[in-house]
Design a protein that fits this description.
The protein has helices at residues 10-41, 50-96, and strands at 100-106, 111-116, 122-130, 136-139. It has 145 residues and is of the alpha+beta class.
Length: 145
């Protein structure tokens, strides 16, 4: 039995959803830290304590880490999506050997593609779903999307 490459579209979705959470954390922390720093600079000398300065620095650090995590997770999500799409394309070529294959996008349940087979049969808007062991299954478009 031939083994197919793994086609995992949940990984990029989870990475992008997590990146949105980190983005929201960073967007909340950064303005708050800026306001606190401005307020801190207006305090008198005796009120500018080390603990306040360290707290503001920690808030900036957390905002920076949240921003870095956002960028890293977006990059990981996009790379995972590209990997899943290329693996899906390789699996379709392995299973069906089409002469032309143009996978347009993945909608969560199936990929939409234009396919031309060696015998000249062509399917525009075909639905490619992934079954057990990442085996691709091609069906003609039965929905109007």
């Amino acid at each position: 039995m031939d083994e197919f490459l793994p086609v995992v579209f949940s990984r990029p979705l989870i990475a992008l959803a997590t990146s949105v959470i980190f983005l929201m954390i960073g967007l909340a922390l950064l303005p708050h830290a800026l306001i606190r720093r401005r307020h801190f600079s207006r305090l008198r000398d005796g009120e500018q304590t080390y603990s306040r300065r360290a707290s503001i620095r920690t808030e900036f650090l957390c905002a920076g880490i949240a921003g870095a995590m956002t960028v890293a997770l977006v990059a990981f999500g996009l790379a995972s999506y590209r990997t899943a799409m290329s693996n899906l394309e390789a699996n379709v070529h392995k299973e069906y050997s089409p002469t032309e294959l143009d996978i347009k996008y993945w909608n969560g349940s199936w990929a939409t593609a234009d396919i031309t087979f060696a015998d000249g049969t062509s399917i525009d808007g075909a639905q490619i779903s992934v079954q057990d062991a990442y085996r691709p299954f091609i069906a003609e478009n039965t929905t109007t999307d």
